[in-house]
Give the backbone structure.
Amino acid sequence: MAKKLPKTLALLDEDMCTGCEACVSVCPVDCIDTLPGPDFAQVMQLCSIDLPRCIGCTLCAQVCPWDCITMVPTDQMIRDPKFQEELAPR
Ligand code: SF4
Ligand code: SF4
């Protein structure tokens, strides 16, 4: 059976993320990773949220010092072509 997604999912604004990792340490399901950033990869990183594993707890959005994570209704995310494949039922 396909996993039921929560009502909201954490949407990251990659342009704002500094890679500080505050969100990584609070995520209870460990679905946030850090990646090398597109510029200055040695010193700047970026976080990445594995959306199918997100449980919508909002903790990451609460702790981000730069307000770059927003909780967005899952229905809205599923309709966005950018996330359709990632959120397709499996
Ligand atoms: S909302 Fe919760 S589960 Fe989802 S990425 Fe943020 S901390 Fe992790
Ligand atoms: S807490 Fe915010 S700035 Fe820090 S890594 Fe997470 S999303 Fe990026």
Observations:
- The helical segments are 22-26, 59-63, 74-79, 81-87.
- The domain at 8-87 is CATH 3.30.70.20 (Alpha-Beta Plaits).
